[in-house]
Amino acid sequence: MIVLGRIVAPFGVQGWLRVHAFGDDPVAWQKMPQWWLSADADAPAESWRAHDLEAVKLHGDGVVAKLAGIDDRDASEALGSCFFGAPRKTLPPPVPGEYYWADLIGLAVVNLQDQPLGRVKSLIETGANEVLVVVDGERERLLPFVEHVVKAVDVAGGTIRADWDSDW
Fold first, then answer.
1. In this structure, are 49 and 13 located in the same domain?
2. Which of 2, 58, 111, 151 holds its CA 20 to 30 A away from the CA of 141?
């Protein structure tokens, strides 16, 4: 399951949901027939619940969505702040230079001197940019996922090349 975001709060009284998107183009999700919901982002695919998607739209500086069967504020509140996602096969392939976060998890990170820095454990969204959480044994590094630090991503080859000193 590819996690696309999280439900933040009810929006209005007709079952709309305010959502926090983990991607750059949430309006593109309008083409998706369903969203899958789970309280746990790491839950196995079979435990996610499918909901037909009625609409997604930008509202102010955020995104709101309407799921079929969630028709009032009580129903939207009952969902809580669960995650939403979709199976990979239902999503379009990312355009060159863009990646699903799930594709980055587990990739080996090496610096420009070919020194291993660890593996990507997770990503953090900071508002300014995403941050790779890279773990090597007990050492954890936080690398900004920006062009001047991340020089190359090779998902098929399982590596990320970064301009980052091994002592940092």
1. yes
2. 2
